Each structure stands twice: as C-alpha cells, then as structure tokens.
Write a sequence for this structure.
C-alpha cells in the first residue's frame, strides 16, 4: 500500500488542490497565501514534497492530482483498519458499534455495500 500520510497542514493544502484542480501553480500560490498564510517558497516546497510522494504532479505550471480525494481516504481507512484492528473489518465495525447504534439508513447502506462486493 502506498504511503500517503499527511500532516494537518499538508492535508489542508492537498484539499486546496483537489477542490480547484486543474490549477495553475501561480493561482495555487495565491490560494495558499489567502487560505494558509503561506509564502510562495513554502507553497512550492510543500507541493514538491507531495509530488515526490506521488500524490500530485506539476507539469508546465499546471497542478493536477495523481490520486483522488476518495482514493486518499480509501488508503487512509485501509491503513487504520490494518494497524488498529489487524486488518479485520468486522472487528472495526464491532468496536465502532459498541458505543454507537447504527441508523437504519446506515445498516441499509452497509448491506448494499456487502451485496455489491460479494465474491462469487
């Protein structure tokens, strides 16, 4: 599984890209200044780091993602279940529902997901 671990500020920066892509790097610099209070050099340093990790690319001054926000969330979720519950989704759900009851809508959605993903 790829390593897409981000700190809080990197996540906020990645969100700027995901919400606005494709985005020109100069426009991204201005957005990061407005939203994060960053200088141009900080923006390009963090962008380069995220490009080196394989999350984004900056070609010809145009920044786009190599993984979607949904893919990122999927990797993070898989990693959490793997590290915390030895990869067991049933153990995760048991822990999750120990203190919180699922609504009927949540149960219906889980049943739909199970049906869609059955092997066979």
């Amino acid at each position: 599984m790829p390593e897409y671990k981000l700190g809080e500020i990197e996540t906020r920066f990645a969100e700027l890209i995901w919400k606005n892509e494709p985005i020109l790097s100069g426009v991204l610099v201005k957005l990061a200044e407005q939203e994060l209070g960053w200088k141009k050099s900080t923006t390009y340093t963090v962008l380069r780091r995220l490009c080196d990790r394989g999350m984004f690319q900056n070609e010809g001054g145009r920044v786009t993602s190599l993984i979607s926000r949904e893919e990122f969330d999927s990797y993070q979720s898989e990693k959490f279940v793997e590290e915390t519950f030895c990869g067991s989704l049933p153990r995760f759900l048991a822990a999750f529902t120990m203190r919180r009851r699922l609504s009927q809508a949540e149960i219906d959605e889980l049943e739909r997901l199970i049906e869609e993903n059955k092997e066979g």
Summary: Residues 88-120 form one domain.
